[in-house]
What we know:
five-stranded mixed β-sheet, 5 strands
Amino acid sequence: MESEEYFISNLLTEDEIKLILQRTEFKFDRKPIFDFAEVLPENIQKTLHESLLTLARIAENFGSNTSRYFNVGVDIFKDFAPYSMYFVIKGNKVEDNSSIMFFNGGIIYHGQHDNGGDGGAPTYSVNISPMNGWSIHT
C-alpha cells in the first residue's frame, strides 16, 4: 500500500484515503502535484482529493457490483498539462482473465493559466463554467 503522506487528512476520512490507496496506482512521482496542491486554498485542494476519490469509487463499483470483472483499478500517469494527470480504469474479465479498459481521461488542473478551462493552452480542456482546481475529463 502506498504512503498516505500526500493526502491532506482533514479533507478525507481514513476510509476514503484507504479506498484511494487500494484502487489507484500512481505510475509516476506524484509528489510535485501534491506539493503544489498543499499550498493552495483548502477548497481547491479538495477538488484534487474528490477527483481521486470519485475514480476510486468508480473502480470499486465495477469490481464489486458485478461478477464479470476482477482486479479493477485506476492507473494514473503524468499528463502533459501542468499539475494534471491521465488515468485509465481497467480490470480483468472473470471468464478468460483478459484485460479490459473501461474508460480513460484526465484529472486536469484548471486556473489562471488556462482561463479556468476555456479550451486553450496549456490544458486544451473545456469546462462549462470556469473553475480553479482539478476536474475529471473523459
